[in-house]
Amino acid sequence: MSIFKKIITALRGGASEAGEAIVDANATRIFAQEIRDAENHLTKAKRDLTDIMAKQMQAQRELDRINNSITEHEGYATSALNQGNEALALEVAEKIASLEVELSEQKQSFDRYNDNATRLKELVKNTERQLADHQRQLSMVQTTESVQKATAAITDNFNNSNSKLLDAKQSLERIKAKQQNFDDRLKASEQLADENSDQSLKNKLAEAGIGEAQSNASSVLDRLKAKQS
């Protein structure tokens, strides 16, 4: 095989693989469309069956009419024979013979309609059963496909969970550090305000024993003792 032919063969193989990949990727959609196409064909087949059944009923009515006409003319022929009018009876018999030929032809038409209707009814029933089964299968396939997609999404999230949890933990630590920094700055601001106030100075003087004497039980007792002396 020449190089050119091998290249052509490779391209054809690649095109076939690509086509199969497209079919595989859209298998469920294709299956659903095929079911819809079959439903459309079934609807048309039912319309055709309805037409055949209508013609079958028409043929049956025609058979009944011819049979009734034959019975009627047989009565006429009998009456003519009873009257001894054989010529008239023969004429009626010719009419009966003509009706019997028409009856035979009509019976053949009726039988054809009847056979076709019976065959089509069976085909319609089988097709309806197959379609119902395919529709159940499609429902299961679609459900399975949805579950598989959900499972794949969960698996992807699980595989990435460690890095995502780490990112979340780092974000939480940054938030906590920011809040702690805010609290520390607030406390420092309050502390600075206290140090700059008169109350802070009084506290420092009191600690050093300078300024107004603090009244307490011991100092009161010492004062009373001094007065007694």
Features:
mainly alpha, 229 residues
Number of strands: 0
Q: State the major sheet.
A: none
Helical stretch tally: 6
Residue ranges: pLDDT <50 for 5 or more in a row?
none
- Average pLDDT, all residues: 79
Spell the H/E element sequence. HHHHHH
Estimate what percentage of residues fall within beta strands.
Answer: under 5%
* Rg (CA only): 54 Å
Distance between the termini: 139 Å
Helix content: over 70%
Q: Could you say which structural class the secondary elements and strand pairing correspond to?
A: mainly alpha
Shape: rod-shaped
Draw up the topology in text:
Elements: H1 3-25, H2 27-82, H3 86-159, H4 161-195, H5 198-208, H6 217-228
Polypeptide structure, described:
- This protein has 229 residues and is mostly helical.
- The chain has helices spanning 3-25, 27-82, 86-159, 161-195, 198-208, 217-228.
- Helix 2 runs antiparallel to helix 3 (86-159).
Short recap of the structure:
The protein has 229 residues and is mainly α. The chain is 92% helix and 0% strand. Helix 2 (27-82) packs antiparallel against helix 3.
